[in-house]
Amino acid sequence: KVVRLNAYATTPIVDNNGNRTTPMAWARSLKLDYRPGTVLFDKGREISRVDGRLYHFHYKEMLRYVSTGAYRQYATYIDYLGPRQKQLLQSGVTIDVSK
Question: Mind spelling out the 3-state secondary structure of the chain?
């Protein structure tokens, strides 16, 4: 699931643990201080986060790190990124972080 929230909203919501809260209070409890921000969960457990903006390549790979379950094999996104970049380059993909 993907949920997009206005971190300044006070509309009642239910968070990923079933607690009644507001987007503003939830963002504060997650210590999500920069905007835009992304918090990635799997089965209610936080796996990774992005505070602020990333280059498209890094953001896409962060989403892939969580969605493919690569976080089970690699302790951190940085541990995952090196082998992933090598795999992409060997398959002929040009990595251009300026896009």
Answer: CCCCCCCCCCCCEECCCCCEECHHHHHHHCCCCCCCEEEEEECCEEEEEEECCCCHHHHHHHHHHHHCCHHHCCCCHHHHHHHHHHHHHHCCCCCCCCC
Q: Which amino acid is at 17?
A: N
User: Is a pLDDT exceeding 80 seen at residue 14?
Assistant: yes
The Cα angle at residue 94 between residues 91 and 96, in degrees rounded to 5: 150
Q: Which residue has the tokens 């940085």?
A: 78
Over the stretch 51-69, which tens digit does the pLDDT of each residue have? Answer: 888 899 999 999 999 999 9
- Tell me the domain boundaries of the chain: 1-33, 34-99
